[in-house]
Write the structure tokens for this entry.
Amino acid sequence: MTFENLLYECHDGIATVTVNRPKALNALNQATLKELLCLFAEIRDDDSVKIVILTGAGEKAFVAGADIAEMQSIDAATGRQFALLGHQLAATIETLPKPVIAAVNGFALGGGCELALCCDIRLASETARFGQPEVNLGVIPGFGGTQRLPRLIGKGRACELLMTGDMIDASEAHRIGLVNKVLPAEDLLAAATKMATKIASKGPVAVSLVKSALHDGLESDLARACAHEADLFGLCFATADQKEGMLAFLEKRPAKFEGK
Ligand code: DAK
């Protein structure tokens, strides 16, 4: 697979997707959004991929937002198309039946912060900076930031970031729960790969169902979400992975999961 604005590699079931527009701090233009959509659709259908790491090229940015140069002159119809592409990408990542780890290696602003918010786990380098500066440009977040940010860090903190447009550093992002871990920049990808390797060694069906239970459940009331969890728990007992996982425990050996 070759893309103009992305780099892609996959080893041992771990796919790494790198947004590759470092001269524009990896800003998301429409072409990049379309490529990301296309690549994540391929990843969804590729059984050799167990988990995805999403990062940005260069040392400065994860993604510095939607491409302001491109957005500046778009009309309403193109703006709507742009927003739909962004929402489609967010939904694709959130409902991908495989985990996605954001390795945030620098600026994650606007649409870049929103992209990280769609991922399941966020690891950040000490050099990472987060913010939703759209109000500085006279717009609001267009890729779900007003919704996912308060769900992750709470309404008050989200309001502050969304209304002031302030940037916060990685340690503050960690303190408020926006990122799971902060690492020295040179260790970020290794740490993401280590975590990905650990997750990839677990029962793939179970990991996928955890993602589904979490994502669907958070959008639902507790009783309905618990009923959904019970359905998914039952489903596990129709899988070879459950049989292998429990047998391996009883035989005191590591499980060999097939993802079935
Ligand atoms: N778009 C396009 N180019 C960008 C960019 C961006 N978001 N961010 C940086 N660049 C470009 C700069 O223009 C510069 O290009 P050249 O001048 O070299 O050609 C290059 O990257 C390096 O940037 P700087 O020279 O500015 O680097 P500094 O270290 O001085 O500053 C910075 C880094 C990240 C603080 C600064 O670049 C900056 O403030 N960037 C803009 C960050 C930002 O405001 N991001 C949010 C964008 S708005 C919607 C859909 C989506 C959205 C909204 C609505 N709908 C359709 C409804 C989302 C909106 C956003 O994401």
Notes: The pocket of 4-(N,N-dimethylamino)cinnamoyl-COA is lined by residues 24-25, 27, 64-69, 79, 82-83, 86, 107, 109-111, 133-134, 137, 139, 141-143 (CB under 6 Å).
